[in-house]
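Re: Re: ligand-bound prediction request (bumping)

Still looking for help on this. To restate: I need the protein modeled with 1-deoxy-D-xylulose-5-phosphate bound, output as structure tokens. Inputs repeated here so nobody has to scroll up.
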Amino acid sequence: MTPTLAAPTALSVNLNKVALVRNTRSLGIPSVVRAATLCLQAGAHGITVHPRPDGRHIRSDDVHDLHRLLQAWPRAEYNIEGNPFHNLMDFVRQVRPHQCTFVPDAEGQSTSDHGWDLAADGDRLRPLIAEARALGVRVSLFMDPVPRAMAAAKAIGADRVELYTESYARAHGTASARPVLQAFTHAAQAALAAGLGVNAGHDLNRANLTEFLLQVPGVREVSIGHALIADALELGYKATVRSYLQCIEQAFAASAGQ
Ligand SMILES: CC(=O)[C@@H](O)[C@H](O)COP(=O)(O)O
Ligand SMILES: NCC(=O)COP(=O)(O)O
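Reply:
Sorry for the wait, this slipped through. Here it is.
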């Protein structure tokens, strides 16, 4: 059974793909700041960006422009993702977002495809986690759904883990969906037991989100980009955000009624 959260899971909209389209010309459209504004006006709880070192989508100027925009949205959370051994820490130092999510991507990787191996990288992550936290920035670690890794994430100082959900998204609606989802349930339980907050993201969408939140306990935030921006091309940003919020509300209402 999913423990009831005090509030529905927060929706952080990832704007990478808006920047990806914008970068194909030098006209500044579609605007990342305008997209953020419309998503926040529709009720999104936060904005996520992943400024990759190759600048293929979100660029340094976007990170700073969004930081300025979010000053006018005091309740909205800014989450910056990236590899702290590449370019992420510069943004953390300059912008001090509410949250940074450490992701172990190689430079030029096409998209995120694995979580941290803390046996290999834990010792060198520890001081960077401490630095970000000392700057007042919450630290989340992008992790595969491996229950035994959660205590290690806590031990090196993380506040939260972001469960990497691509395997769930791929399995959704297939015969293997149940054991895959169970792995996420167990990983979230282990994270909560270790004293970590739980986030989730990658390939979540309107078809798979509610079931995930119903089965995986205590998810504080989902960051969603690719599918949400694809939906926004058809429905517009505001209708799309409202529809994702409905998926979240549905799970919250059902778990509150348990
Ligand atoms: C960290 C993560 O989960 C990724 O989903 C990421 O933010 C997406 O990056 P791209 O938009 O570059 O595929
Ligand atoms: N952290 C995951 C994220 O921000 C968005 O991932 P996706 O929805 O673009 O796969």
